[in-house]
Backbone:
């Protein structure tokens, strides 16, 4: 069902935007592949180890559809090797954006189509205060799918994040961030800080016309009593 809908949306986008639209820069296509030493999501270890995380985004006039995935490259000796496939529909205006996401992370050997039991549907609001004070605030709440409590009722798991990118010399960006869940749900059995992190990004120049974005990140996950040191790089267009 979701795949058919995605194909229909992509087809509609191509039909609605003729070739002259491409020249005007209104319709955009971008792709990227991140290679990461491990995959930690909101403080939780996704048991993927070294992974590739490709994404494809189509955008037009503030709207975008993004398909994002994660595939383990190192942990194939487990019962269901880590695999994730997400679909995100977004709209952005000035410093504000809203996204509806369909998360699926059941693993390589699991079927995709069990929407009530294997998919998590979430709405996310993001606001950036501006260039002079680039604090980024986000609120994400699961509203359907597999996000259920022991009684089978929707628990509305919610995640709040604040981050602040800081530009440093040598074209390095340092970003401290903090994540919090305000009540019992998917992330923890009560309100708690889920993750605190510090991430450093830099575009490493390879040739005069080609550079590779590289990052190193420290993550502390208080709810799981875990710490992580990650690294990765990206290739994209």
Residues:
């Amino acid at each position: 069902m979701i795949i058919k809908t995605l194909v229909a949306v992509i087809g509609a986008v191509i039909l609605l935007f003729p070739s002259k639209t491409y020249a005007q820069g209104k319709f955009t296509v971008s792709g990227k592949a991140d290679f990461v030493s491990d995959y930690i999501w909101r403080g939780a270890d996704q048991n993927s180890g070294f992974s590739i995380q490709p994404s494809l985004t189509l955008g037009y006039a503030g709207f975008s559809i993004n398909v994002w995935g994660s595939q383990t490259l190192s942990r194939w000796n487990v019962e269901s090797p880590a695999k994730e496939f997400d679909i995100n529909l977004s709209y952005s205006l000035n410093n504000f954006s809203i996204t509806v996401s369909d998360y699926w992370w059941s693993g390589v050997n699991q079927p995709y189509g069990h929407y009530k039991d294997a998919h998590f549907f979430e709405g996310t609001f993001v606001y950036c205060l501006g260039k002079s004070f680039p604090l980024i605030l986000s609120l994400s709440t699961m509203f359907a799918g597999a996000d259920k409590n022991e009684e089978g009722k929707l628990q509305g798991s919610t995640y709040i994040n604040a981050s602040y990118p800081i530009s440093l010399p040598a074209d390095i960006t340092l970003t401290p961030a903090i994540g919090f869940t305000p009540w019992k749900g998917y992330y923890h059995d009560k309100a708690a800080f889920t993750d605190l992190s510090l991430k450093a990004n830099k575009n490493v120049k390879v040739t005069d016309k080609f550079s590779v974005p590289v990052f190193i990140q420290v993550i502390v996950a208080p709810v799981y009593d875990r710490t992580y040191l990650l690294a990765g790089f990206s290739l994209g267009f």
Remarks:
- Residues 205 and 231 are 17 Å apart (CA to CA).
- The radius of gyration is 19 Å.
- The helical segments are 2-16, 19-24, 115-118.
